[in-house]
Amino acid sequence: MLVIHCPYCGPRPEPEFAHGGQAHIARPQDPTTTTEDDLLQFLYLRENPRGLFRERWRHARGCGRFFNAIRDTTTDFFVTTYKVGERPELPGGAA
Amino acid sequence: MKARTTAGGRVERAKKVRFTFDGRAYEGLAGDTLASALLANGVHLVGRSFKYHRPRGVLGAGAEEPNALITVIRDEARRTPNLRATQVELYDGLVAESQNRWPSLEFDVGAINSVFSPMLPAGFYNKTFMWPRSWWFKVYEPKIRAAAGLGVAATLPDPDTYAQQFVHCEVLVVGAGPAGLTAALSAASSGARVILCDEQSEMGGSLLSERNATIEGVPASEWIAKTLETLSANPRVRVLPRTTAFGYFPHNNIGLSERITDHLASPPTHLPRERLWQVRATEVVLATGGIERPLIFPGNDRPGVMLASAARTYANRYGVRVGERIAVLAGCDAAFEAALDLSAAGSTIAVIADARPAGSVDGPGILAAKAAGLRILPNATALGVTGKLRVTGVLLGIVGADGQVVSGETIACDAIVMSGGYTPSVHLHSQSRGKLSFDEALGAFVPSTTAERTRSAGFGRGVSGLMAALQDGAIIGAEAAAAAGFAGGSLTVTAQALDAALSGSPGALPQLAGPIPPAKAFIDFQNDVTTRDIALAQREGFESIEHIKRYTTTGMATDQGKTSGLNALGIVADSSNRRIAEVGLTTYRMPYTPVTFGAFAGPARGDQFDPVRRTPSHEWAVARGGVFEDVGNWKRTRFFPVGGEDMHAAVNRECVAVRSSVGMFDASTLGKIEVVGKDAAEFLNRFYVNNWSNLGVNRSRYGILCRDDGFVYDDGVIVRLAEDRFHVTTTTGGAARVFGMMEDYIQTEWHDLSVWITSTSEQWSVVAVQGPKARDVLAKLTTDIDLSAAALPHMGVARGHIGGVPTILMRVSFTGELGFEVNVPAEYGSALWEAIYAAGQEFGITPYGTEAMHVLRAEKGYIIVGQDTDGTLTPDDAGVAWAIGKTKRDFVGKSGMDRPALKAPGRKQLVGLLTDDPSVVLEEGAQVVLTPNQPIPFKMVGHVTSSYFSANLGRSIAMAVVAGGRAKMGETIYVAMPGGDIPVKVVSTVFYDPQGARLNV
Ligand SMILES: [Zn+2]
Q1: Scanning every residue of chain A, which has its alpha carbon at the shortest distance from the alpha carbon of B254?
Q2: Domain with CATH 3.10.20.440 in chain B
Q3: B630 vs B635, B636, B903, CA distance in Å?
Q4: Share of chain B above pLDDT 70, in %
C-alpha cells in the first residue's frame, strides 16, 4: 500500500486513489483537423517506461481531484505529485 | 516427563499442563511449546515428510522448523493445520495431531514412496505428467492434489473473529532479541513513537536460551524484565509479543500478524483470535537475528537429529534434555557452546565431531569444551546414522589430508545435534527490495544497500557477540529515531557471554567418494530435497539458482530458505566451481511464516463482505415474497410471484398487466447526477452525443454517452430543470464511472467551462408507473400537476406534489406505454411506493421486477448498454445514431466514431431476430452464422444479445448484433447451437407498436 501525496489533501493511503494512466495526453482540439494518426496517438499509444513515469491519479475517495505524479516504475517511489496544468522538471533534466 | 531437568529454564514447574498428541495423553509444563513438551516426554517422531513420507523429528525450536508440522484441533470448526509444533504454546487440554501419515505415524503406508524414490527425483512431476494432455485434469491433477498438501483444513466456517488495525509510528523495531530490545530502548529515549514486535510469546529472542549471559551485571532474564518494564511504562511505546512481521510492503508498510487467543485454554469470546496490524513506520529497524543451518550428511533427517541451537534452547529455556547420550556435529563454534549447555543439563556428550581441520584458531567455545574435558574429534564428518524412528548412532568418517574420507567408528547416541553456522534472517530486508552481499568470513549473506527507510541491527546484519549486538541495536535505534526527526536518543550497555563464533561454510559435509551416496542427505527437509536432486538438476542443465529452486522445489513453500537456502547455494557453488556470491540468491517471498486467511479477511465476511444497497420498496417486496437479484451492490426485485408462480409465469403476468392496465416499478437504482452552472448545457453538448442547447426547461431527452474512441459507454434520460441546471440519469451500473468521467473532462480538459457536478443517486427515489391507466393512478395522488397530454406530453417534466410529497414528475417510458417516473426525495420513497400501490388498486396495479422490465423494453427494441452493446458498438451500430447532434463542432467520441473503420460497411449492427418456431427462445450469447452445416470452424457473424419470451406477442423475441445486419432485413440466418442450427429471420428491433402510438396518449 503506497502513500500518495494529493496536492490538495497531503499524504493519504493508496486505496483512496484511482490510477488514471499516462499524464499529459492532449485531447485533439479540433475534429475538423484531427487526423487518424492524431487519434491513434491520443486514444491508444502509451509509454510503459522502466523508470520515471508521468502519470495521472485521482483522489477518488477523497477530494475527487485529478492530479499528476512522477513515479519510478521500478521502485514505486514518487518523485513528486503536482496539479493539473503544472509540469515540474524530471530529476536530471529529462523530459 | 522423563527428559525434563530438575531445575532451571523459564517453564513453571509447579503448573502441569495436560495435552494429547495423536490421541495419547501427555503432561507438560506452563511455558512449554508443544515441541518442548513432546521432547520432555521423549517423543521425537512427530511427522512424516512431504514426498517420501520419511519419519521426521523436531529439527528446530522456532519459526525455522520444517518437520514438526502438526494440526491443532479445538473443535471441528477450529482445526488449524500445518502449525509448527515449536511455535505452538501449550495450554491445558490442547489436542494436536500429526500429519501426512496413514494409518499411523509409526506405520505409514505412504512411506512406500521412499522405496520408490529413484522414481521420484527432482522434476518428477514435470517429467511424468506431461502426456497425454487430457490426463491432466482427469488423472494426474486429482491424484497429485490428494497426495500433496500436508494438514487438512476445517470444512466448517471459521467461527472466530479477527481484528484489523492501522497504526503509525516513527520507529518500528522487528524482533525483541538483544539488538531489538536496545534499539527500542534507545529509539524510545528520544521521544519517538516506537512499536516493538516479536513472534514469540516472550520478548528476549536468543537471550531466552542463554545459560550464563549477564547484561549490566545481572542475568539476561533479569535485564529483559527490567527493559520491558521501562518500555511498557513509556506511553509512546507499544510492545507486541506473539506478533510476526510477515511482510514488508512498499513505503514502509509492514504487515504484522498478532496471535491473541491461540495460546489460551478457554479463549474469551469477546477477544478476536488474531489481529492484523498494518503499520506505517517512518523508519524501520530489523533486528531479526539469525537461524542456524543444518549440516548435510546422509540420514540427517532422522528423528533425534536436531539443530544445536534448538537443543540448547530446549535445555536452557524449557529444561528439556533432547537426548541422554548426544553426538555433536560441528561446522561452527556454536556447536561447542551447545555441547557445554547440554552437558550442564545432564546429557552425556558422546563426541564432538568437528568437520573442520584441527589447528585453526580455537574460539572461546572450543576452549571451554576442551577445558570441560569433552571428547573432540577434528576432521570428522558424518557418513550416516543408524535408527529409523529415532537415531541410535552415528557413523563418523575421517577426512584425510588428501580430502578422501575413510570410514571411522560408529558412536551410539540417542540424539545428534549439529551446527553448520548461522544465517542472518534477511527476509524482511530482502522483501523491502534491499540488496544483500555475501560476507565471506561469516559464510552468509548480510544486508547491504536499502531501498526503503530501513536499517538492520545485530546479527540480522551479521554483528555477532552479545555485547556487540546490544550496542549495535542501541546505535541503530537512535539513528532510526533521529532520521525520523527525534534526535538525542542513546543507550549504553555492557554484557558478558561466551560468544561462540557463528560463522560456517554452507554446503554438504565431506562424504565417501562414489558414484551415488549411500543414503539421502537432505537440504530442504520440508520439500524433501536431497543433494542428489540438486546434482541431477545441474546434470540436466539447470544453472541459474532460480531454475534449480523451481525444478527441485528447494526453499519453496513456508521454508523460504530459512534452513535450506544457503546450503543449497553452497552445494551448487561447489559443484559448479563458483563462489556463493556468484551463484546469487533467490527472492524471499512474503509471508515470513504463514498467516491465516481470517486475519486478512478481518470483519469483511458474510454480511460484511460487501455493502448492500436496498431500494425504497425493498421491505415491501420482501414481505410479498419478491425474488431478488444482485445488480452491482443493489438488491433489485426480479419478479413478484403470486400464488406459487414460477418466474416464467410471474413475468408473463407482469408484462401483460403493464400493457393492459398499469404496472409499477422501483427505478431508484438509476444513477443520478446534477449538472449545474452557466455552462451546464455547453458541458453536456461536449460530453453527450446529443444537442442540449435546444432542450427547453422542464423537458427531457434520451442521451447517449460515448468514449472518445467513439463507442457507446452509457445512456439515460436528461432533464433540464432550469437554464443552468440539469438532472442527468445514468445506467444503474454506470453511475460511478460516468461521474468519474465527467470529473475527468471538467478538471483536465475543459477549464473554460463554469460547471459543477454532484452525485444525487442516493437523494432521489424513483417509482415508474407504466401502462394505459398510469395517468388515472397518479391523478388520484396530485392536485397541483396537470397530467393531461397537452400539459405534460411525452418527455415532458412537471414539478409539484404526488401524494403530498414534493415531486419531479417525468413523463418517460422504458416500456413503450404511457408512463411516468415519479422522483421524490429519498426519505419519502417507501411511503410513495405504498401510496401509488394503494391508489392503483382499483386499476389492478401490478408491481413488476427487473425481468419484466427487460422483456417490456426488448419488445420495444430499447437497448441496455452493456447487454446489447459491449464497448465495440458505435451509436450507429446500436441503431441510435438519430440521437447525435449533427451540427455540433465536437463532442466526446465524435472524431473517434468518424474514423473510416468505424463507418465501414459490414460492421456488426443491432437487429431483431424472430425464430421460425415461436416457442423457441434463443440463448443469449449464442453465435450467429449465415448458413447452417458449415465445416468447422463456423464463420461467426455476430451473437444474440437479448432474448425473451414475450407474453404480449405470444412468441419469442431476440436482439442480436450481426455483421451488416440492417441490410439483411427479412433474410433467414442461423443461430448455431450444439443441438442444431436454429433458423431465424432478421427483423426490426421494434417488435411491439412500431408506430409508438401507445406512448403519445
Ligand atoms: Zn485530495
Answers
A1: A1
A2: 1-154
A3: 5, 6, 37
A4: 95
Residue B649 corresponds to which amino acid? A
Of B171, B219, B222, B220, the C-alpha closest to B197 is B171
pLDDT digits (tens, 9 = 90+) for B949-972: 999 999 999 999 999 999 999 999
Chain A touched by B898 (CB under 8 Å) = yes
Cβ contact (<8 Å) for A20 and B744?
Answer: yes
Q: Cα separation of B103 and B23, whole Å?
A: 13
Among B875, B883, B885, B882, CA closest to B693: B885
* B451 Cα: distance to centroid of ligand 1 (angstroms): 27
| Domain boundaries B294-420, CATH class | alpha beta
- Comparing C-alpha atoms, which of B712, B746, B745, B748 is closest to residue B730? B712
CATH 3.30.1360.120 fits B613-669+763-857, yes or no: yes
pLDDT at B552: 85
Q: What CATH number labels A3-25+38-93?
A: 3.30.2270.10
Closest CA to A61 of A24, A28, A12: A12
Residue A18 and residue B451: Cβ atoms within 8 Å?
no
pTM of the model: 0.90
Q: Where in chain B is the domain with CATH 3.50.50.60?
A: 162-290+424-496, 294-420
Residues in B touching A85 (Cβ below 8 Å): 751
Per-residue pLDDT of B591-618, as tens digits, reads 999 999 999 999 999 889 999 999 999 9
Cell of B683: 458541458
- 10 Å Cβ neighbour count for B557? 15
Nearest to A39 among B253, B748, B899 (CB): B899
pLDDT digits (tens, 9 = 90+) for B639-689: 999 999 999 999 999 999 999 999 999 999 999 999 999 999 999 999 999
Query: What's the pLDDT at B109?
Result: 67
Residue with cell 419531479: B808
The Cα–Cα gap between B641 and A32 comes to 56
Give A30-74 pLDDT, tens digit per residue: 999 999 999 999 999 999 999 999 999 999 999 999 999 999 999
B187-200 pLDDT, tens digit each:
999 999 999 999 99
Residue B624 contacts by C-beta under 8 Å, 6 or more apart in sequence? B640, B847
Q: What Å distances lie between residue B937 and B930, B934, B944, CA to CA?
A: 13, 8, 18
What distance in angstroms lies between residue B679's CA and the mean position of ligand 1's atoms?
Answer: 25
| Homologous superfamily (CATH) for B671-759 | Aminomethyltransferase beta-barrel domains (3.30.70.1400)
Task: Give B247 Cα–ligand 1 centroid separation in angstroms.
Answer: 28
CB B706 within 8 A of CB B712: yes
Question: Is the peptide bond preceding residue B641 cis, with omega within 30 degrees of 0?
Answer: no
**B770 contacts: CB under 8 Å, gap ≥ 6:** B658, B662, B663, B664, B665, B813, B814, B815, B817, B818, B819, B820, B856
**B372 near A CB under 8 A:** no
CATH architecture classification, B505-578: Orthogonal Bundle (1.10)
Kindly report the CATH number that applies to the domain delimited by B900-1001. Answer: 2.40.30.110
Residue B963's SS3 state is strand
pLDDT at B137 over 60: no
Whether B447 shows a pLDDT value over 70: the answer reads yes
Non-local (6+) Cβ contacts of B283 within 8 A are: B170, B171, B172, B252, B453, B454, B455, B480, B481, B483, B484
Fold of the domain built from segment(s) B162-290+424-496:
FAD/NAD(P)-binding domain (3.50.50)
Which residues from chain A sit within 8 angstroms of residue B451, using beta carbons?
75
Helix (H) or strand (E) holding B909: strand B908-915
Domain extents in chain A: 3-25+38-93
Flag if B251 and A1 touch (Cβ within 8 Å). yes
DSSP A13: E
